Amino acid sequence: MLASKRLQKELLKMHAHLPPGIDIVSTDDLKEWLMDIRVLDPNPLYQNEVYRLKFSFSKSYPIEAPEVVFVQDTNRPIPWHPHIYSNGIICLDLLDRQGWSPVHNVESICVSLQSMLTGNTKKERPPGDDNFVKYNTQRPRDINFLFHDNSV
Amino acid sequence: MAGNEHAAEQLKEKGNAHFRKAEYASAETCYSHAIQKNSKNPLLYTNRANARLKLERWQDVIDDCIKSIELLKENMKAFFYLAQAQMAINHPNEALSSALMAYDLCVKSTTQTNNAATISALVLKCKKAKWEVREKERIRRRGELLGELEEKLEESKKKDLFEIDKRLAGQEMGTVEAEEERKGVEETYNKKVEDLRTAFAISDPEHMAKREVPDYLIDAITFEIMHDPVVTRNGQSYERATLIEHLKRSPTDPLTREVLRIEDLRPNLALKEACTEFLEANSGWIYDW
């Protein structure tokens, strides 16, 4: 109840206005949304590419954070970033249980991810990406990422 | 007398059994027989009112409720059924005062508080119905006024055109001049009607394209208008229930991430007043917003 009402209102707001580089792809139900983001600055790592994000909402959204991952598609790669695994899982404090705040929303998450990419210069994956991608069976929100590296 | 009371009680039980099986006509008959045996028991009337409510016999429901209230003043059920019947026959003002009586009695009573949510939903429904009746009347009256004013404008236009024809006939002006004057009169008339209609449309909130609740009345967590706002230490206000939900999981201010405990919250009375006022001024659509 809480989640669906709030999501409907977010959708209305986003249909009226969205920041540049952010697009709604599909919001067919109020459980899972797809959004596209682009990096607007001339950062050579992300030039001419579009990235697709999948949002999954629980019934307790926005008290609980949504689950947000990049999803791969034929013309939608997973962006390079030392905090983004090659399977699309993102390590970002505001998506973490501790870092989440119910005043965040789909739009503000997209903007945060945009700026996280904009500021990055390293064409890298997080340390241990191979193993993580191979062996991780946990859902993103159940993983305890270590936020020891605040330089990126 | 005692024998009759006993018989009435048995008939009531029989009626209740029918009612539970959704046999409302049979239930109503049993209650009627019970009332013949004992006409002093207010519960028999409320039970019959409930059966008649199901049978949609609104006027009979109202009669039963009034009889029951005469016998027992603090009669939440009777006021509750009465409100529903009054709503059904389109008397929202009466329905609202009955529903409010039921709500008061319910809140005061210690045993019946679990009905509070149902009754407050009925109160809200009555308020909305009351607003709708008022609104319909207002739109009808506006329509009449607008029609009357447009008629007056048309009359004065006809008079002006008639004057031109007269002067043309009396050879006070030529055909070309008269044609120009006529065009001028038509144009002024059309402009005036347009302005009048615009003025009416602007002053009518029903015609305003956008119905929005101002951001300062909206809870940043649920995105809904607040009912009981509380203010945090940095001055931001939230709806009490949802903020507490967040604080139970993470005792931090949603904006600043500083430590925030439930005890730190203070009611924001002025904002609460503003929310109430906005709800009252905009009742119709706000219920579905």
Automatic annotation (TrEMBL), chain A:
The alphabetized UniProt keywords are: ATP-binding, Nucleotide-binding, Transferase, Ubl conjugation pathway
So where's the catalytic machinery, residue-wise? C91 (glycyl thioester intermediate)
The protein's matches in PROSITE patterns, at most eight in alphabetical order, are given as: UBC_1 (PS00183), UBC_2 (PS50127)
Residue intervals of the UBC core domain: 2-152
A Pfam family that this protein carries is UQ_con
Instruction: List the GO molecular function terms.
Output: ATP binding; transferase activity
Give the record's family classification: Belongs to the ubiquitin-conjugating enzyme family.
Q: What is this protein called?
A: Ubiquitin-conjugating enzyme E2 2
In its UniProt entry, the species of origin is given as Lepidopterella palustris CBS 459.81
From TrEMBL, chain B:
Cellular component, GO annotation: cytoplasm
The residue stretches assigned to a coiled coil in this entry are none
Pfam families in alphabetical order: U-box
Q: Which reaction does it catalyse?
A: S-ubiquitinyl-[E2 ubiquitin-conjugating enzyme]-L-cysteine + [acceptor protein]-L-lysine = [E2 ubiquitin-conjugating enzyme]-L-cysteine + N(6)-ubiquitinyl-[acceptor protein]-L-lysine
The UniProt record lists the U-box domain at 212-285
Q: Which domain of life is it from?
A: Eukaryota
The answer on whether this UniProt entry bears the keyword Transferase reads yes
Gene3D superfamilies according to UniProt: Tetratricopeptide repeat domain (1.25.40.10), Zinc/RING finger domain, C3HC4 (zinc finger) (3.30.40.10)
**Where do transmembrane segments lie in this chain?**
none
Name the Gene Ontology biological process terms: cellular response to misfolded protein; positive regulation of proteolysis; proteasome-mediated ubiquitin-dependent protein catabolic process; protein polyubiquitination; protein quality control for misfolded or incompletely synthesized proteins
Key words, A-Z: Isomerase, Repeat, Rotamase, Transferase, Ubl conjugation pathway
UniProt key word Secreted: no
Q: Which GO terms describe its molecular function?
A: peptidyl-prolyl cis-trans isomerase activity; protein-folding chaperone binding; ubiquitin protein ligase activity
The name under which this protein is listed is U-box-domain-containing protein
